Amino acid sequence: MTNDLTIHLVDDEEVLRRSLTFLLVSAGFAVRAHSCAKAFLDILPLSGRNCLVTDLRMPDVNGIELLHRLHRFSADVPAIVITGQGDIAAAVQAMKAGASDFLEKPLREDALIAAINLAMGQRRPGSAIADSESVAARVRQLTDREHQVLNGVLDGLQNKMIAYHLGISSRTVEVHRANVMAKMGARNLAELMRMAIAIDAVELSTETGRTLPASPWPAYAR
Is residue 111 over pLDDT 80? Predict the structure, then answer.
């Protein structure tokens, strides 16, 4: 497989950079590997079709700050964040900062290539409007309690923390969370985040015909 897409891989671990570069080149992609965020930022602006695959935790400029800087530079580059286990809250922040997806290590080849294809496909004209309408229809199916659980999930909270603040059991949170995923048609947290980003809270309140429950989470828990 060959295409005109260039993958920019940013990771401070040389072993992982080499491994992912080999994987992506074998899949037919052109790859430029960068040892740090600054090395990538130094080559802006980019030309042609590009996709960024960046590690979350790096010295100096981490993955989230890299996304913020791209936004300030008005660099419209689809981005996928790679994260270790236990970094879900930070990964949620990365998606709020503009990442198209996040993947947990160790990476699977099929998952990475699918994420790249999805990130590039999201650039289709008119897709955002269609996604907003679809997400709004799904949100209307959620109960108030499911909205509260959804708020906690999107804030990156673990089930036990959601349970504590709502005064319910972790098992009940698991049930509500499963219901939310099913009603929203989300296969994983990254998909759920993409849906939430598709429309903002004001649009949700207007289209659903009722005010959404306020987030119950204290500032320190967000």
Answer: yes
